[in-house]
Write a structure and sequence with these properties.
Elements (H helix, E strand, L loop, with lengths): L14 H24 L5 E6 L3 H13 L5 E6 L1 H9 L6 E3 L3 H9 L9 E6 L1 E5 L13 H9 L4 E4 L5 H12 L3 H4 L3 E4 L2 H9 L5 E5 H6 L4 E5 L8 E7 L5 H11 L2 H9 L9
Parallel strand pairs: 1-2, 1-3, 6-7, 6-8
Antiparallel strand pairs: 3-10, 4-10, 5-8, 5-9
InterPro entries: ModA, ModA/WtpA
GO biological process, one term: molybdate ion transport
Pfam families: SBP_bac_11
Length: 276
């Protein structure tokens, strides 16, 4: 097992949240370690952003059909996964939902930079639970419509200071000038799929998620898309983790770039990653 590394300082976190976050990270590391000790030491372990869950499920049989062994997948917010990897969790491949967390691991020498590439892209959408909710036309004031349609309810989002979907959502609302008024009415969730569940279950009337998440949940509908210029580009960088099973990780990264894997990503609504 890798030697635990010091957690990076995350700006803007209150001390209680930082303490609870540290406990969650260590719980994840210990859980991952227990799994690793009881499983085949050569088995590939992929840490992937929660929004990649359906893709990873459908990639597994395709990978196996091409001669690959079964792999384990750990799904969570990119921030949680990055912290676990930082602490030495036994990951071989990391798929993040934004570049910042991958940049952090690259600066600390935790990933192999030569293996890094952008796997896919995504878009940000506003969803509603009400099947009769009217779409918001591109010419309408999106910020005013969100405020009006929320009523006394809350806007579901992933953690706005840590999880990529929440970071993108906050940036979009700031660009639209809506953040100051909406900030007290945000219902923050641990990851984007948890935010999606808040809307799907009716606990929140509206939510901000990726287009791919909305596609995966029949109980919600997309009522607006956030213009790309309102937030940073949504890219999914992928890389091999230093000290992992390099050969297996390299083969899996090559598989992710194959036409078959690209077809799975496309089927789940992901877009090709733009060239830098």
């Amino acid at each position: 097992m890798r030697r635990p590394r010091r957690l990076p300082r995350i700006p803007g976190c209150a001390s209680l949240r930082a303490f609870l976050g540290a406990l969650a990270v260590w719980a994840g590391v210990l859980s991952s370690s227990a799994v690793a000790q009881s499983a085949d030491a050569a088995q590939l372990t992929v840490f992937a952003a929660a929004s990649m869950g359906d893709v990873m499920r459908d990639l597994a049989p395709l990978w196996k059909a091409q001669g690959g062994d079964a792999f384990r997948t750990s799904l969570a917010g990119s921030s949680v996964l990055a912290r676990q990897i930082q602490q030495g969790a036994p990951a071989d491949v990391f798929i993040s939902a934004n570049a910042a967390w991958m940049d952090l691991l690259e600066r600390d020498g935790v990933i192999l930079p030569d293996t890094r590439s952008d796997l896919a892209a995504n878009t940000l959408v506003l969803i509603a639970r009400d099947p009769k909710a009217a779409p918001i036309a591109p010419g309408q004031d999106l910020a005013a419509q969100i405020d009006k349609r929320l009523g006394n309810g809350r806007l579901a989002m992933a953690l706005v200071d840590a999880v990529p979907a929440g970071i993108y959502g906050k940036a979009a609302l700031e660009t639209l000038g809506a953040w100051p008024g909406l900030a007290p009415r945000i219902a923050q969730a641990d990851n984007v799929r948890a935010a999606l569940a808040l809307v799907a279950s009716g606990e929140a009337p509206l939510g901000i998620v990726y287009a791919t998440d909305a596609l995966a949940e029949p109980r919600v509908r997309v009522i607006a898309s956030f213009p790309p210029g309102t937030h940073p580009p949504i890219r999914y960088p992928v890389a091999a983790v230093a000290g992992g099973h390099d050969a297996a990780a390299g083969a899996f990264l090559a598989f992710l770039r194959s036409p078959g894997a690209a077809g799975v990503l496309r089927a789940h609504g992901f877009l090709p990653a733009p060239e830098r």
